[in-house]
Design brief:
The structure holds 2 protein chains of 2 kinds. By secondary structure, chain A is mostly helical. Chain A has one domain: MetI-like (MetI-like fold), CATH 1.10.3720. Chain B has a single domain, classed as MetI-like fold. In chain B, 80% of the residues lie in helices and 0% in strands. Chain B is built from 10 helices and no strands. Classes of the chains: A mainly alpha, B mainly alpha. Chains A and B meet through helix 1, helix 3, helix 4, helix 5 and helix 7 of A and helix 3, helix 4, helix 8, helix 9 and helix 10 of B.
């Protein structure tokens, strides 16, 4: 057997791949579920915090800034490990899935709050004053004047950041979530062949490559049409 | 509550283990940040080449490694290399994975920096007799890097945080050491302590970044 054949036999073993394809597909479903949950809750929480911050209660704002800083400074894996291994001593036993979801959502919340807030503050004060003086209420000004402009500005950085954080779903494998990487790792130790990892790599690319390309496209588009 | 999450006795027993981990985290960062910057510099310089045979493969390369979760890359190298007939240490795997992954991110940032310099400056520099390389080194890069400094810093923060992945391939860095201490003592205090160390270490950078970013977006 030539060394090339051996390489293919090792990393692209069709038999092993066929056997574990359903597992990896199942892992993909879990990854997509986890990613969707993280994105929706993380972004919603981030926007909510940014709006709360725009009300301008000083103690509340200090607290928000602290929480945001905290989750920007801590590595996501540290948060996951803390929730998964640390909370059970309080008789709460979050599953790996919940731990990963909660951790990544908190991280995304922090980063997106920061971006949403920067977007809101980038709208000139004169626009607020003009809108308010035409008789719009605070909420109306926010919804009809400020947010439409602010959100547009935030889309490119937000997309890139969201992708980067969503990729963190792979960290779930450390706390036994049966997402793609977790399924692939156990398949490797069961079959003693690394082909499932190749399959997992392909699965990740299938999910994230289009997102990265879309992020790049958004970035150029928004830059031109500003 | 305090007994569980901030047990002084356990801190007394575990701080040496964590300190060793912190040392390794810093050491690892000192190695992988320049490595990623170097990879990014190569990519960003190549991005100036107009030849489509360089341009599109390069773009695919960058997007490929931006789409690939770093942990997957790391596990692939770590678990896959023995099957290919050579065993790599966790450290080697981390270095390669970071070079590829963070290099792609740094490359994109540096490319944006280089592109932010108007063509006129390059023409002017070239017409005064500077070579291509000299123009790049003395005119374009110093200004380009300054223009994207917040992004570079922000990515560096992410890279330092990412060194915690080393724990998965048994690198004895801060998180790994904390988990060792936690499983020895059956108490989450070491993890809380590790989180605290990360926070204290990285908070100043986060503060600086959020000021820089707010200013950048407000100026538009």
């Amino acid at each position: 057997m030539s060394s090339w054949d051996r390489f293919v036999e090792t990393f692209f073993n069709a038999k092993v791949m066929a056997k574990y394809l359903p597992d990896i597909a199942y892992g993909m479903v879990i990854t997509v579920e986890l990613a969707a949950l993280v994105i929706v809750t993380g972004l919603a929480a981030g926007l909510a915090l940014a709006l709360l911050r725009s009300l301008g209660f000083r103690p509340v704002n200090l607290l928000i800034v602290f929480v945001v800083d905290l989750f920007r400074a801590l590595p996501p894996l540290v948060i996951i490990v803390f929730i998964y291994f640390g909370l059970p001593t309080l008789d709460l036993s979050p599953s790996g899935f919940i731990s990963t979801w909660l951790s990544l959502a908190l991280v995304l919340m922090a980063f997106s709050e920061e971006i949403f807030w920067a977007g809101i503050t980038s709208i000139a004060k004169g626009q607020w004053e003009a809108a308010r003086s035409t008789g719009l209420s605070y909420g109306q000004t926010l919804i009809h004047v400020v947010l439409p402009q602010a959100l547009r500005l935030t889309i490119p950085p937000l997309t890139n950041r969201t992708i980067a954080i969503t990729k963190g779903t792979a960290l779930g494998s450390v706390v036994a979530v049966s997402e793609i990487l977790g399924m692939a790792s156990s398949a490797v130790s069961n079959s003693y062949n690394p082909s499932p990892l190749t399959l997992a790599a392909a699965a990740y690319l299938l999910l994230f490559f289009p997102m990265v390309v879309m992020g790049r496209w958004l970035e150029t588009r928004m830059r031109w049409k500003r | 509550m305090l007994q569980t999450f901030f047990n002084l006795e356990i801190i007394g027993a575990a701080w040496k283990i964590l300190l060793a981990g912190l040392g390794n985290t810093i050491l690892l960062s000192v190695v992988v940040v320049p490595l990623g910057l170097f990879g990014g510099l190569i990519l960003s310089l190549l991005a100036g080449v107009r030849n489509p045979w360089v341009r599109y493969p390069l773009m695919a390369w960058v997007d490929f490694f931006r789409a690939f979760p770093p942990l997957v890359l790391l596990i692939f190298l770590f678990a896959g290399s023995p099957f290919a007939g050579f065993e790599m240490s966790g450290f080697t795997c981390v270095c390669i994975a970071f070079f590829l992954n963070t290099g792609a991110y740094y490359g994109e940032i540096l490319r944006a920096g280089i592109e932010s310099i108007p063509q006129g400056q390059i023409d002017a520099a070239r017409s005064t007799g500077l070579g291509r390389l000299q123009t790049m080194l003395y005119v374009v890069l110093p200004q380009g890097v300054r223009n994207v400094l917040p992004d570079l810093l922000s990515n560096t923060l992410e890279v330092v945080k990412l060194t915690s992945l080393g724990s998965v391939v048994a690198m004895p860095e801060l998180l790994f050491q904390a988990r060792q201490a936690q499983s020895l003592t059956y108490n989450p205090t070491p993890i809380v302590l590790a989180a605290l160390v990360y926070f204290v270490m990285l908070w100043p950078l986060v503060r600086l970044l959020s000021r820089l970013e707010n200013r950048a977006l407000a100026q538009r």
